[in-house]
Structures are given as C-alpha cells and as structure tokens.
C-alpha cells in the first residue's frame, strides 16, 4: 500500500497510537530507577588502589552504622599527629578517589580516616527508599565518634573533608555530633538549591540516556520525576544548616570547569556562612582541583587546616574531649 492508497497520509505503524501516552510513563519509570541508583550506585569493577600503593602506612577499621547496622569500611592512615582528617568521597565513587588527598594530608603530619559510604565500595548496602540524608549524616557521625574514641588517634582535633555529595552530610553533622568538628572542607559542593541541582544532574544524564528516554515528552517527564523521586528519597531537612552557634571553620573549594555542581551554586552556599573561605581551582573539572591546580590547592588546604587546628587546640586546652 502506498501513501496514495490512504489519501496521501503515511501509513501508521502498529502501536503508534500508544506511543504519545506511554512516553511520560517511560520517563517516570526511568527516573525512578536512576533516582534509586543515585544512592545505590553500581560498584566499580576492578581492584581499587589503596594507600599502600603509595607507600603509606595502612590500617583497617570497621564502623557499624547505628542507624541500621550497615558496616562501614575505613582506612586508617596514621600520621605524626596529633590531628585527624576524616575524608568522605563523592557519590558513585569510593575512598580510592581521594588517594592524592590522603597522601597530601599524611605528609602534612595528619592522621587520615577515609571510609566508603554505605552502598559504596567495601561498605555494606541497604535497600532503603527514604531518609537517605539522615542515613548518610548518621553514618558520618558514627565515623566521627569512632575516630574520637580510637586510642591510636587521641590527642588532637578532627576535621572533615567532603567531596561533592558528601559535602552535604559533612555540614549537617557539625550540629548533630557530640564530638566538636574543628573544620569542614567542602570540595565541589554543596549546592545551595538542592532541587535545582538535581534537575541539573538529570539534564546532564540526558546525554547518556538510552534512545527510548530521549524523546521530548519522555525526557520532560524524566527530569521532573527524577527530581521528585531523588528529593523524596533524600528527605533533606533544615538546609542549609544553621552553624552560627559553632566555632567550626569552613572552606568551600570550587572547580572552575565543574559541569556537575555549578560553581555559582556552591558560591551561594559559601555566602550563606559569614567568615567561610571560598576558593576556585583554575581550570579544574569536578573534584579535580588538586590535580589541575596542585600548588595553590595544597597551599590553601594545608594553611586552612593549620589555622583551624591551632584555633581548636587553643580552645580545647591542647587536647581532644
């Protein structure tokens, strides 16, 4: 049959009438799957590098999450002391991503604790569909308390070093911990407007989505649904946290060429905290400031930590509570 046989119209493909109504549904299904994977990402393949590969001393530690019993696996890299930095990796990564930072901190004399977040790396997994912000913040608090109680690390102050997603719990935990936090370094995050950040992330994913999710109607539904599901699972409250009652020093590091968490989104968070340091790593993509602007990165990070630890040590009379 030709188009002339149907009065000039092209023949309809079977099922064509279902495609338009089904398009939003496909987007919603795809968004639900990817929102779940945001907090439960597939594990990377291959052997992960460790501090031992860089010739650093390495001990292992397991912290059991008080929220639900998930085991959190951590590296302990002892330094000359007395102060400790807890390193938290980015979403979809593992503690191995921060090996360069761990080496930098160790060579500056600090003890370093680096742990895999739940659902990442060597740590245990959950199948949770909600309260993810509370879970991740509670986990970091558990690691913080375990660090303060570790006899191998006693005597100094503790700082937190978060990347991308983990910068949110790093700020949140300051007022939820009985252990004082001397400083927080937030690299490549957090965004002030979290829903807007999730919409931006969904738009970026559009470039790698399968063809069945790229149609105009499907992708429009996908973007809206991804934000909805991701926020519903996260259940982030009291954002940004009010830290005015705490002496914790804050440093926000922005990567100039960051396409995942826009520099202006992080700068807005930094402006929310009077006195916070805010620095942009020139030419750096997401979480790569140390590699692309190494000398300045090292100088600023180590200088900031030295000042924060000195101030904290004075306030505590030279010892950790």
Automatic annotation (TrEMBL):
It comes from the Bacteria. Gene3D superfamilies: alpha/beta hydrolase (3.40.50.1820). The keyword Hydrolase applies. InterPro entries: AB_hydrolase_1, AB_hydrolase_fold, FrsA_esterase. Keywords: Hydrolase. The keyword Hydrolase applies. Residues 85-287 form the AB hydrolase-1 domain. It holds the Pfam family Abhydrolase_6. One of its GO terms (molecular function) is carboxylic ester hydrolase activity. Belongs to the AB hydrolase superfamily. FUS2 hydrolase family. This is Hydrolase, alpha/beta superfamily protein. The lineage of its organism: Bacteria, Bacillati, Actinomycetota, Actinomycetes, Kitasatosporales.
């Amino acid at each position: 049959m030709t188009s002339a046989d149907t009065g000039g119209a092209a023949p309809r493909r079977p099922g064509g009438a279902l495609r338009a109504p089904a398009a939003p549904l496909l987007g919603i299904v795809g968004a639900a799957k990817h929102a779940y994977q945001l907090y439960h990402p597939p594990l990377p393949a291959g052997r992960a590098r460790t501090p031992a590969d860089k010739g650093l001393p390495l001990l292992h530690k397991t912290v059991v999450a008080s929220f639900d019993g998930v085991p959190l696996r951590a590296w302990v890299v002892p330094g000359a002391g007395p102060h400790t930095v807890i390193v938290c990796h980015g979403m979809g990564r593992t503690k191995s991503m921060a090996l360069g930072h761990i080496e930098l901190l160790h060579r500056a004399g600090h003890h370093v604790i680096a742990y895999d977040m739940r659902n990442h790396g060597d740590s245990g997994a959950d199948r949770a569909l909600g309260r993810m912000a509370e879970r991740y913040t509670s986990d970091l608090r558990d690691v913080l308390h375990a660090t303060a109680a570790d006899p191998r690390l006693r005597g100094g102050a503790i700082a937190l070093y978060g990347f991308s997603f983990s910068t949110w719990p790093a700020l949140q935990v300051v007022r939820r911990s009985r252990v004082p936090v001397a400083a927080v370094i937030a690299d490549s995050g957090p965004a002030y407007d979290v829903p807007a950040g999730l919409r931006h992330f969904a738009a970026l994913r559009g470039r790698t989505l399968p063809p069945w999710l790229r149609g105009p109607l499907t992708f429009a539904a996908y973007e809206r649904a991804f934000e909805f599901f991701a926020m519903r699972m996260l259940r982030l409250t009291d954002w940004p946290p009010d830290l005015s009652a705490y002496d914790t020093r804050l440093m926000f590091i922005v990567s100039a060429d960051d396409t995942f968490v826009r520099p202006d989104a992080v700068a807005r968070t930094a402006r929310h905290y009077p006195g916070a340091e805010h620095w942009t790593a020139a030419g750096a993509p997401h979480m790569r400031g140390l590699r692309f602007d190494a000398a300045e990165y090292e100088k600023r990070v180590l200088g900031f930590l030295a000042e924060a630890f000195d101030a904290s040590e004075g306030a505590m009379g030279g010892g950790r509570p």
